Amino acid sequence: MEELEIDLRDIFRILMKRKWILIAIPVVAIIISAVISYYVLTPVYKASTTMMVGKTYSNVDAALAEYIQYQDLLIANQLVKTYSEIAKSRSVAKNVILKADIEMTPEQFRKKVSVNPVKDTQLIEVAVEDSNPEQAAKLANLTSEAFMVKVVEVMKVDDVQVVESAVTPGSPIKPDKKLNVAIAGVLGVMIAIGLIFLLEFLNNTIKSSEDINRYLELPVLGSIPKIE
User: What's the CATH code, domain 45-164?
Assistant: First the structure.
């Protein structure tokens, strides 16, 4: 127990001896991260539409219709990848690009679009990311329209509708400025501590009477005080 306390005191002493490093590196890291996050990185906005893709069952009894709809729910969750590829298909991309009248290739458009299931429902979310919030909403709505036409054609479903249209997002989804600054601060502290211990390890000079006892195992008969 005594040995542990000595080690902890030594660690504290080493850190305090070069405390300027422990302060300077995290501060510099935080400042750099804040400048990059607030003034360099382009904010990205996300707008999404919610859609339902399914089939209607008007000629079956209620119990059978409920069972079939449950099966459709399971299938719908398994078809998310298919829906995603349809939403990102070249024909949908070209349709959206033409209607939005924007300079963009289908490959660039694919990177902006994502399709995700709404848990335990037949609903799917079609989302678009863009640096312009108004354009993100516009592209999301145009994508849902083009997707509806294409999914009916490909999947032969007869019940595709927009449950909720996209609206202009009020704040970006990235970068997360506060999180970036916090991470930079933590990394700065870790780097500073690592550097301090590296410098201490590389410095093999005898610095105190305790070092003589510890490393040379020699008794200290006396010491000369430092005169200012």
Answer: 3.30.70.1130
